[in-house]
Amino acid sequence: MLTPASAAALPMGRSPAGAVGGLGDGSATIGLFSREPSGNKHRDGDVTPTAAREIPGKHGRADWLGCGLQRFFLFHMHVLSPPHPGSSRRHEAEHHTHSEDDPQALLEEINDLKKRGLPMSGAQLKISANAHVVMPYHRVMDQLREGKRANKIGTTGRGIGPCYSDKVGRMGIRMIDLLNPRVLKAKLADNLNEKNDIFVKVYGFKNYDFSEIYKEYLKYGRRLKPYICDTALYLNQEIKAKKKILFEGAQGTFLDIDFGTYPFVTSSNATTGGVCSGTGVPPTKIGQVVAAFKAYTTRVGEGPFPTEFDKVMNECIRSKGHEFGATTGRPRRCGWFDAVLARYSVIINGATQLAIMKLDVLDELEEVEIATSYKYKGKFYKEYSHDLDVLAHAEPIYEKWPGWKSSTREVRRYNKLPLAARCYIERLEELLGVPIKYISVGSKRDEIIIR
Known about the structure:
Layout: E1 6-11, H1 16-24, E2 32-36, H2 51-54, E3 61-64, E4 70-73, E5 93-95, E6 100-101, H3 103-115, E7 125-128, E8 132-133, H4 136-148, H5 160-168, H6 181-201, H7 210-224, E9 228-229, H8 231-240, E10 245-249, H9 273-279, E11 286-294, E12 297-299, H10 311-321, E13 333-335, E14 337-338, H11 339-349, E15 353-357, E16 367-376, E17 379-381, H12 388-393, E18 395-402, H13 419-432, E19 436-440, E20 448-450
Parallel strand pairs: 2-10, 5-7, 6-8, 7-9, 11-15, 14-16, 15-19
Antiparallel strand pairs: 1-10, 1-11, 3-4, 12-13, 16-17, 16-18, 19-20
Helix pairs in contact: 4-5, 6-7
């Protein structure tokens, strides 16, 4: 949904350059990767991805595998990049407590990566024993609920919301339960006793067969067993061993269930606060926070979008920026950079550095604009409002800046950027009050400027 912003968090005492260095310039400095929240792309993976995710490329995460061959991997559930050539460290990824997993989709992605020659053992991937499992009835419930709503929220229909509802309702099935036939049997029977009544009596839908689901998910448990562990304990042990860890936010701030454009949000906490509740790593261990913003704003699905372009400009930027949902392929809505949203995101995430992504998408424009406030019913709003009427009907107040009308794709040093591009970057930095450390100007690993 709305881009500002996702955050990459580093444990205390770690160099923020490491968050990008292991991905952007070939130096291997990050030992472990963790993603929160995860799942099968709650909402197409839209909103500004984290610096670590976006830096490699617009079409998915880029990874270099032997002989200088560049391959692009579009991940729906996994995290970050596999090992980079020349890496002296083992890169590991993990799903954790504050996530939900669709085991079928997860296994399909694991198998796909294995076919591409990537190591996918329990040393590379760790799944939290406490991660909640998306069940078949969650996906159907998601679609049936959306079908009954007068005001659609734009769900992907992959069962994320209903899965979280069961978690909060204390009836969810976790990864660890797939390894215990007795527990899985008891939980599934209780759930279907209720779910089947709802499906039949409320939606006129069919019953679900207990035996079929039970056997299917026991099979998933056997296949996923090598990856399932206590990831909170594991991460804290690795921090104690002085490992460098990057926590990747899978969604942006305004998808956050508490601080986002509710109800057009995901079902979990997508801000940096979710790192601690999701991984079991205490806040005292979090050091640097890199917030990533696109050089413009995007949103997928329904919901308010104050700075949205007109139809022609939307198509232009969408095409240049390859703005389509990673999971469903839905076209993203595009608009000017919204400093009102961005400032709020910086505050609640505690950002210590910023990354501006896709600057090159704006290369050919005569003029670029930045929304610095809103006007609604005669009142000016310099700060973000949670009132949906304000967000839906406010008039953005823009600053207009000259475009640079030249390609930035080959630029690797900040002082070599066109003057107008530097003025734009420095104005964003001034408005947000946090240093901009990273600027991406293309889809390849080396197409990034580190200030």
